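User: I've been trying to design a sequence by hand for this structure and keep getting stuck. Would you show me what you'd pick, starting by listing the structure so we're on the same page?

Assistant: Good idea, let's start from the same input. This is the structure you sent:
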């Protein structure tokens, strides 16, 4: 069984920083890991992705402020968020494009961690 467990959310003032972590447990082969976010009344949006070869991709709204990184040995992905803005306030979800033994590729999700940025 695969679990994605996020941590690191919280309340921060505008201009501050937070670092999110997501650890994948279980026997899993990962193609890419991503962070998504969803604010109340809005659709879930992709924030950043990092692939197994280290390539990264960011939403325009976070470029230059957020950095995604990974520790492949630990199946862990991080999201360093700097210069936070009130509009970054959301529930942040970790996603893995992965497969478990004897199964096809699929999406796995964490439970979400709340990030709140006060003005």
């Amino acid at each position: 069984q695969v679990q994605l467990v996020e941590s690191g959310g919280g309340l921060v003032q505008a201009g501050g920083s937070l670092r999110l972590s997501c650890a994948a447990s279980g026997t899993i082969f990962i193609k890419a890991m991503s962070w998504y976010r969803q604010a109340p009344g809005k659709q879930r949006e992709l924030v950043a992705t990092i692939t197994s070869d280290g390539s990264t991709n960011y939403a325009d709204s976070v470029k230059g402020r957020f950095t995604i990184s990974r520790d492949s040995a630990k199946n862990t992905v991080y999201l360093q968020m700097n210069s936070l803005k009130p509009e970054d306030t959301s529930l942040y979800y970790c996603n893995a494009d992965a497969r478990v033994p004897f199964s096809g590729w699929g999406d796995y999700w964490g439970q979400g961690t709340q990030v709140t940025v006060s003005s």
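That's my pick for every position. To get oriented when you compare it with your attempt: The chain has no helices and eleven strands. Residues 54 and 96 are 14 Å apart (CA to CA).
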